[in-house]
TrEMBL record:
Residues 1-280 form the Protein kinase domain. Residues 341-426 are annotated as: Disordered. The keyword Iron-sulfur does not apply. This is Serine/threonine protein kinase. It comes from Coprinopsis cinerea (strain Okayama-7 / 130 / ATCC MYA-4618 / FGSC 9003) (Inky cap fungus). GO terms for molecular function: ATP binding; protein serine/threonine kinase activity. InterPro entries: Kinase-like_dom_sf, Pkinase_fungal, Prot_kinase_dom. The lineage of its organism: Eukaryota, Fungi, Dikarya, Basidiomycota, Agaricomycotina. Keywords: Kinase, Serine/threonine-protein kinase, Transferase. SUPFAM superfamilies: Protein kinase-like (PK-like).
């Protein structure tokens, strides 16, 4: 049975699923044998690409010609209206109404992540907006889809130059090693005198465990920022921000390496039923599995050894979901905030009567993050006119594949709405 989930990568990575539980191997074998693995990823079944907007020139320059001399503004890029039809109407994780359902969905998303692991790919942008779910009727079980493979990458990348990866993803859920740009080592100093330890710093490249750590951050975000009760946000304001920098990485690194009890504000941010509960204990044990995985791999310098990730990908992640089952009746009906407007928290937010923290939906590299916690929009150049109708591909199209066909910006949407209003006036 295990042979059915092996992929072509051989050699030292041949036993990449060597530490998988048998039930995880059976789950993967089932979706591969019956072909249902395609349903675990969001696909487009039809699309319409509009004509290219012919406007092209310099943006208005309110600062005058002096600003143009110092730094010329970017050109206005062609835009197109794109319409896509998906095979299912899905609900993102940040719109799931109860904690029990959200935990079930996160457990199910491990299957497509393990498929990517066996195929030799990492997602690099695990966030609530990219974890989708649908069901046939109210009350029926959720089916999970993993979306937005725009930043997915092979691991290890055969074309890698040995440089560190760019900081990619949604800042709320980026793994600590990526945001901090350094590996996690054991919390003692003997390794500095160990001759086997690499002398030069090794660049951090996005790996399988970084995707799994994002799930840990999502779970913490759900119970500290999304509970629909009047609770303080002191913990969330420190650890969930749309800016990625040294202070952000340092705080999150301390939480990951030293434990959830390190920050006492987490207890004040939780409803009473979750304070010192098996759920919170399970989250801290999952944190410990992540820390051990990172530090052991760094100690042995096995960052590119794919088989070293199999333990955390199976046993480590399963341990949390298995442990919280016993206390499920206590927390499964906890109501979560549901709205589609992402609003980042502020340091002064303290209760449910203020803006509820949600992740920034525009995902960019850290260098694009602007002032006041906003994410700068980056237009994607595409100067080639497109036909009104684009013929379909042979096979499914993912949502991220569609993004390359053209992007609709907010300004484009406002302009189209204004054109519709003018037509009605006539």
């Amino acid at each position: 049975m295990g042979e059915s989930v092996r992929v072509e990568n051989k050699g030292k990575n041949e036993n990449k699923e060597k530490d998988f539980r048998q039930r995880d191997i059976d789950d993967l074998a089932e979706v591969l044998e019956n072909g249902s693995f395609r349903q675990l990823f969001s696909c487009i079944v039809a699309k319409h690409i509009g004509e290219t907007d012919p406007l092209n020139g310099l943006e208005d320059d309110p600062a005058g010609s002096y600003w143009k001399i110092i730094e010329p503004p970017p050109p206005r890029l062609p835009r197109r209206r794109c319409l896509f039809v998906y095979e299912h109407v899905c609900t993102p994780l940040n719109d799931i109404p109860s904690l029990g359902e959200a935990v079930d969905i996160l457990r199910l998303v491990l299957i497509p992540l393990r498929l990517m692991f066996c195929a030799g790919w990492v997602h690099r942008d695990i966030s609530p907006g990219n974890i989708l779910a649908y069901r046939e009727s109210p009350g029926s079980p959720w089916t999970v889809k993993l979306s937005d493979l725009e930043h997915a990458k092979r691991f290890p990348d055969p074309a890698s130059t040995g440089a560190a990866d760019s900081i990619i993803g949604t800042p709320y859920f980026i793994a600590y090693e990526i945001s901090g740009r350094k590996h996690v080592y054991p919390m003692f100093q003997e390794y500095e005198r160990d001759a086997s330890h690499p002398v030069k710093p090794v660049p951090v490249v996005h790996c399988y465990q970084h995707d799994l750590e994002s799930i840990w951050w999502i779970l913490i975000w759900l119970i500290t920022m999304r509970i629909n009760q009047k609770l303080p946000w002191r913990f969330g304001a420190k650890h969930f921000t749309d800016k990625v920098g040294y202070g952000h990485a340092s705080r999150r690194g301390a939480l990951l390496t030293q434990g959830l009890a390190y920050d006492i504000d987490i207890h004040h941010s939780l409803p009473p039923v979750l304070q010192r509960s098996p759920f919170l204990i399970g989250l801290d044990r999952l944190r410990r599995h992540l820390y051990i995985g990172y530090s052991t791999r760094s100690w042995e310098a096995k960052w590119t050894d794919v088989s070293s990730y199999s333990l955390i990908a199976s046993e480590g992640m399963n341990s949390f979901f298995d442990e919280v089952k016993a206390s499920r009746a206590e927390w499964e009906d906890i109501e979560l905030i549901v709205n589609s407007e992402p609003r980042p928290p502020t340091a002064h937010a303290s209760g449910a009567n203020k803006q509820h923290g949600k992740p920034v939906s525009n995902k960019r590299e850290a260098g694009d993050l602007g002032g006041e916690g906003r994410v700068r929009k980056r237009a994607r150049p595409n100067s080639t006119p497109a036909p009104a109708i684009v013929s379909g591909r042979t096979g499914p199209i993912t949502r991220s594949m569609a993004r390359n066909e053209g992007r609709i910006t907010r300004s484009m949407t406002r302009r189209l709405q204004e054109e519709e209003r003018q037509k009605k006036r006539r």
